[in-house]
Specification:
Elements (H helix, E strand, L loop, with lengths): L2 H15 L9 H8 L10 H9 L12 H9 L3 E4 L2 E4 L1 E6 L2 E6 L13 H13 L3 E7 L5 H5 L4 E8 L2 H14 L4 E4 L10 E6 L22 H12 L1 E16 L2 E2 H12 L3 E8 L17 E10 L2
Parallel strand pairs: 5-6, 5-8, 6-7, 8-9
Antiparallel strand pairs: 1-2, 3-4, 9-10, 9-12, 11-12
Helix pairs in contact: 1-4, 1-7, 8-9
Length: 307
């Protein structure tokens, strides 16, 4: 592991020792919180750490413990922002563990996402992911999905096309004391062999800036999710499970993701559970020209089991 990533592991360990906790919210909520003034002078250490490593607020050097500041610099994640300093990473809490990911706002092409979708995805995995020999998390991002159920698998493979995502996944695995194989791959193209479980929470929007964590391609952002269903089913042995958490654009009352994915799942002879977890997310996307005919974007969960 590169020295900068080892520094991130040590920083995460120190934050855990300092009982740091933070739940990452939607960008809209984040923006509103940042618009409020924060009283650095009268804030306790826990509040200051949350502002720096949760809300990505600019700060002065003396407002952060020196050890945290030094580790942030060693990790090459400390930047100047006018008269202030700023962390280029955030740390989020999930089931007692910390996960490092990109700072707010996630505007860079190679940003590593973590947010409300991550919490919902991991909750779904907790409910539906079986105990298996070999599991792959396709488009793993921070690695939170695969790592959250790593105790249920003899081996875990984390794949992503984004090299930075794999770096931070490795940090998060080390922070959690877990072993995982990291593979830079466009979906499953660079991964060999069969799996007992294929899980994914891929990008599912159209993004004019084509950011890796956000742009799902196709006519409405559904293409990558459909591709992972196709490739994932082909890699499952008997008794294998595919778990796909994704967004589904609804046009004239019809789910466009399921319209494309259902024939693939049925052709595989899988037992199917397909549910809508949230009927309306990312409503602001409907203002964009590409979504003018879309009624809503739903969050859905597909669980397909091969007999």
């Amino acid at each position: 592991m590169h020295s900068r990533n080892l520094a991130l592991v040590r920083l995460g360990e120190e934050l855990l020792q300092r009982r740091y906790e933070f739940v990452t919210v939607t960008p809209a909520t984040h923006r509103r919180v940042l618009a409020r003034a924060f009283d650095w002078e009268n804030a306790d250490e826990a509040s200051r750490l949350r502002q720096v490593f949760g809300y990505s607020r600019g700060f002065q050097a003396g407002q952060l413990p020196r050890s945290c500041l030094d580790l942030l610099a060693q990790a090459e994640c400390l930047e100047e922002q006018g008269p202030n300093l700023r962390s280029r990473v955030r740390f989020s809490s999930l089931n007692g563990k910390l996960y490092v990911h990109s700072s707010y706002p996630t505007s860079e092409a190679g940003a590593v996402f973590f947010g409300p979708d991550t919490y919902r995805f991991c909750a779904a995995l907790e409910r539906y992911c079986p105990s298996v020999n070999r599991l792959v998390d396709v488009g793993c991002g921070s690695g939170a999905g695969g790592l959250s159920v790593a105790a249920r698998a003899r081996s875990v493979v984390l794949t992503d096309i984004n090299a930075r995502a794999l770096e931070l996944s490795g940090v998060n695995a080390a922070l959690a004391g877990l072993a995982a194989e990291l593979v830079e791959s466009d979906a499953l193209s660079n991964v060999t062999g069969e799996f007992d479980a294929v899980i994914a929470n891929p990008p599912y929007l159209l993004d004019p800036e084509h950011r890796l964590y956000r742009d799902g391609g196709g006519s409405l952002g559904e293409a990558l999710s459909v591709r992972i269903v196709r490739e994932g089913l082909a890699r499952l042995g008997a008794g294998g499970t595919l778990i796909m958490y994704t967004g589904a654009p609804i046009v004239d009352g019809k789910d466009q993701f399921w319209h494309a994915a259902r024939p693939l799942v049925e052709a595989a002879g899988a037992r199917i559970r397909y549910t809508e977890l949230d009927p309306d997310v990312f409503g602001e996307e409907l203002d964009h020209p590409s979504y003018q005919h879309v009624e809503r974007i739903a969050v859905t969960l597909l669980v397909a089991r091969i007999p």
